[in-house]
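User: Could you check the structure of this?
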Amino acid sequence: LELRRTQETIVAIRQGEIVFQEDEEMLRGLAPAGLARGEAENYLLTLLQRADELALRRGAGQDSSSQRAVFVMGDNFDQTLEKLILSQNQMVIRLVSALNTLKGEPVITRFLLDDNKKIFDAGQLIYQKEVSVDSDQSNVEQILTEILSELNTLGVKQGIIPQRGRIGLVSALNLTDVSRQLSQLSDQVLINAIAENDIYTIGPLRVRLEIVKDKVP
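Assistant: Sure, the predicted structure tokens are below.
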């Protein structure tokens, strides 16, 4: 049975018929601290209802008896419920697919819980990089790509949870402005990344890039 499913999964991936991949996040929420049992249970059930609607839109199928498209594996629901009731902090709750889900199949999922801790304060300098702009400014795009990649890595190390593989967010306006400034330079410059707001485990890492000075001694 396991071999047959593996073969079916390989074929489905080739044909683009995997609607959710193993460990793919379906949705996330932020649960307040101090929930009573009924409140915590309703919170989780509401997430599952939202996930059910999402699963059907993506092409998952309903179980014929329950008419549901999303199921939580094993004791995960009860374990998550108990942790929520006992928690004294805000909790980031993620619902992820536990297996590769083929088109037309229900989705087997599990909840993941993390404390929603503050990682950075608004206005905090969280990253600094000295870069050299080529005389023809041909490496400006590469510089910005590297900065965004390094911000992503920094966020992961500090405990921010990625969403769709990303953590760092820089506004298009800010990126355009920094790119324009770099395109007018041809020397070493210092670039800072400043937290736009208080940043927590749930993310995202919203930052503003600033060129501190035109030249670095």
